[in-house]
Amino acid sequence: MSDNLTLPAQQGSAGTSTEPLLKVEGLTKHFPIYGGFPIKRKVGAVQAVDGVDLTVGVGESVGLVGESGCGKSTTGRLITRLLEPTDGKITYAGQDITHASRRQLAPVRSEIQMIFQDPYSSLNPRQTVGSIIKSPMEVNGIEPEGGQEKKVRELLELVGLNPEHYNRFPHEFSGGQRQRIGVARALALQPKLIVADEPVSALDVSIQAQVVNLLKKVQDELGIAFLFIAHDLAVVRHFSQRVAVMYLGKVVEVGDRESIYNRPRHPYTHALLSAVPEVDIDGTGPNRERIRLSGDVPSPILPPSGCRFRTRCWKAQDKCATDEPPLVQISGNKAGHLTACHFPEDPTTEARDEDVVMDPALLALEDAAESDTVPTKD
Ligand SMILES: Nc1ncnc2c1ncn2[C@@H]1O[C@H](COP(=O)(O)OP(=O)(O)OP(=O)(O)O)[C@@H](O)[C@H]1O
Ligand code: SF4
Ligand SMILES: [Mg+2]
């Protein structure tokens, strides 16, 4: 990767520094289920996302974490307006874009970009790398100074690829390199917000470190805000200033990185942290309690009443089945650390840091993220 980034740092279009770039309120997506014969009618709905509140500040990186099927991708697709919300409100740079038409969306389309999980299927195998990265500029009729090809070559260099590979096809690149192509494509329109949906989970752990590091550099140096979706708290830890934990369509806990990793209050966050593999640094054996969640995530077609986590929660009581816990700042939480639980965990558990000790492979990720050098060969 070149040391001198060629894209200008983003100023952010939110009016003031206190106004978030993205604000999501009560965001809901219910996918209807149809049944019956001969006349099909709606018989239910998959409550994929159900009342999510979330903000992302200018240049801020927010992690969105949760198990498979909890609604992370759907949330990302709603924000990028690839899906139409059932309810709720999406405000981008002070503008309500919840139900904006294609034409109304045009001015902000280029500012919000998405990076997808699978670097194999998200690139057209019949297009050269040059035309893949160029296509967002063509679609939006953007002619950068020096021309589109020059910009593509700059972007290739920016993401640590050889600009001379402009005419190569995706199959000629490794998984990590293909994800770099995806990053270059997302950067082509100088976005202000990137929704990265599990951008490294399809890659080997050693390659994950390089791509996370690249994204971090992009965020730091170009000031681009990120919503970084992952199922693994370990990956998000290196990248996000704030973390939101999602369970069965709802955000159950959100807060700054330090609060979430060191003082998690929601039992589900605690369980997710304890699931991160622990390395026995001092040879005395694992020294923290491992929480094993029993059972699978319940169906989003018929989620549990009250608190949706109650069927797997070891602290559940009667109230949890009848009253849905609101996402609020509970006693002992830092400002901005919100938790949705009637009977939260103790905030002062000793040596909570032990909970997030990485296994050796993930430690490599941490080292790479902390180092200034960005490996360019995958
Ligand atoms: N188009 C759709 N029609 C019906 N149900 C859908 C649709 N898209 C997603 N779902 C359902 O919505 C729920 C949330 O899916 P989503 O893909 O958002 O979860 P996720 O958290 O991204 O999971 P993963 O970690 O596996 O990617 C799942 O139960 C999924 O089956
Ligand atoms: S509200 Fe009850 S069931 Fe839900 S997480 Fe808290 S203790 Fe567990
Ligand atoms: Mg997903």
From TrEMBL:
InterPro entries recorded: AAA+_ATPase, ABC_transp_ATP-bind, ABC_transporter-like_ATP-bd, ABC_transporter-like_CS, Oligopep_ABC_C, P-loop_NTPase
Example of a GO biological process term: transmembrane transport
Annotated CDD domains: ABC_NikE_OppD_transporters
Gene3D superfamilies attached to this UniProt entry: P-loop containing nucleotide triphosphate hydrolases
Tree of life domain: Bacteria
A Pfam family annotated for this UniProt entry: oligo_HPY
GO molecular function: ATP binding; ATP hydrolysis activity
Keywords: ATP-binding, Nucleotide-binding, Transport
Domain ABC transporter span(s) in chain numbering: 22-273
SMART domains given in the database record: AAA
Family per similarity comment: Belongs to the ABC transporter superfamily.
Protein name: Dipeptide/oligopeptide/nickel ABC transporter ATP-binding protein
UniProt organism field: Streptomyces griseorubiginosus
